[in-house]
Specification:
DNA-binding; 187 residues; transcription
Length: 187
Amino acid sequence: MKLYIKNMVCSRCKTVVRQELEALGHEVLTVELGEVTLKKPATEAQLESISERLLTHDFELLSNKKQQLIELVKTAIVELVHQQNDGLRRQKHSDYLAEKVNRDYRYLSTLFTEVEGITIEQFIINQKTERVKELLVYDELSLSQIADLLNYSSLAYLSTQFKSVTGMTPSQFKQLRDKQRKSLDNL
């Protein structure tokens, strides 16, 4: 049985979800971002218990098919932006999402905007902005290296996009060391 879970964004999330499901007596076969496979189907009462337990960690069990699909898109975008796989990052976003979710990109784009109230492109920009903030706080890479890592066409484009989202340039953010980052599940 597959369960779809909202707000899973990292390996710690996968660990917590696995532990909670096992604590409830379920045999977990796989745990991926946003998706869990149980060995046996869960009853309605068990699903309610799972839902309540996951909510204590700010995870949400998804039952609506549209929500499940949107969560798969979000998970794919998080992987795309936050993983260091150069080939993956250089792939066109629309092609990557259509392949990863196995749906037509136009359909995904329309559904995403309908459900989330923002476009997929804006969600990607938000993710990239948070990733830039993270990398600036770590202070291990130059701004040019960050632009290259996140597949920006130029440093100027990264700066323009960053400023349009945050109201400040990357250099200003770095100087402030404000660290007002949003957690991935709040984007």
